[in-house]
């Protein structure tokens, strides 16, 4: 039987940063990063601080260009497309339909209410505004955000409230791949458990998750595999 096709196939990726304000010195971070992500899998990036976990996540989302290698993402039609090549149209198309991302911090649009911030990706994908707002409200309620906050802009919300708005926004769309950067970092235990439940639900639906979780109980509850990023460290070899 043929091996199941991955949703994400990272092949031989390398990244170094050039420090322009330090005479252009190059800071190698990772090299030969290779792994695949299949439906229903949750791969957690592990390893010590500064080893390159966030850098890998950002490359997979197309925020950082790669120096070498490929980041192949399965598109809607089933073709594997290289997001690492940095073509902006490919990156945007894959972000719309294939890869979702929950960053640690909410980058909110000024004046937009929490409900609008959460509903916006669905509206852009063609869901009627009212339906999108209803679904956004249900998701925010599940995350225990007080209803009094739904119509307010998240700019003045607490760290944990902002993080829940961000999670709701990222989880409401149905991307086959979901990237999570410390989604529970600012949450209390009860809301952390809600998010763990939401991640497991995504995995049951066949979504593939790639994430960073420093919180050990969360990691234990969701990881199907832990990938130690130290094995890709470019500094040892440098
Ligand atoms: N934009 C950047 N410019 C220069 N150096 C960077 C940049 N982003 C990351 N680095 C460097 O790359 C290395 C890896 O950083 P990264 O944030 O990927 O590590 P991490 O494993 O996610 O760390 P942590 O667990 O502390 O968040 C660090 O030495 C960091 O200083």
From TrEMBL:
Keywords: ATP-binding, Lyase, Nucleotide-binding
Domain ABC transporter: from-to ranges: 8-237
Domain of life: Bacteria
InterPro entries in the record: AAA+_ATPase, ABC_transporter-like_ATP-bd, ABC_transporter-like_CS, CP_lyase_PhnL, P-loop_NTPase
MF-aspect GO terms: ATP binding; ATP hydrolysis activity; lyase activity
Record family assignment: Belongs to the ABC transporter superfamily.
Protein name in UniProt: Phosphonate C-P lyase system protein PhnL
Gene source species: Plantimonas leprariae
């Amino acid at each position: 039987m043929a091996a199941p096709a991955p949703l994400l196939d990272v092949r031989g990726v390398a990244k170094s940063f050039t420090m322009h304000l330090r005479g252009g010195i190059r800071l190698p971070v990772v090299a030969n990063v290779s792994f695949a992500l299949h439906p229903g899998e949750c791969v957690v990036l592990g390893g010590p601080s500064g080893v390159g976990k966030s850098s890998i996540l950002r490359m997979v989302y197309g925020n950082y260009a790669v120096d070498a290698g490929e980041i192949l993402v399965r598109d809607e039609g089933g073709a594997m497309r290289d997001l690492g090549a940095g073509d902006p149209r490919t990156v945007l198309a894959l972000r719309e339909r294939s890869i979702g991302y929950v960053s640690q911090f909410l980058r909110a649009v000024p004046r937009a209410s929490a409900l609008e911030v959460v509903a916006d990706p669905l509206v852009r994908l063609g869901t009627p505004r009212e339906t999108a707002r209803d679904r956004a409200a249900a998701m925010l309620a599940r995350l225990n955000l007080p209803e009094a906050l739904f119509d307010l802009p998240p700019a003045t919300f607490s760290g944990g409230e902002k993080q829940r708005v961000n999670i709701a926004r990222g989880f409401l769309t149905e991307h086959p791949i979901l990237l999570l950067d410390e989604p529970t970092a600012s949450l209390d235990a009860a809301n952390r458990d809600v998010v763990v439940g939401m991640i497991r639900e995504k995995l049951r639906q066949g979504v593939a998750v790639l994430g960073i979780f420093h919180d050990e109980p969360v990691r234990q509850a969701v990881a199907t595999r832990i990938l130690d990023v130290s094995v890709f460290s470019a500094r040892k070899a440098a």
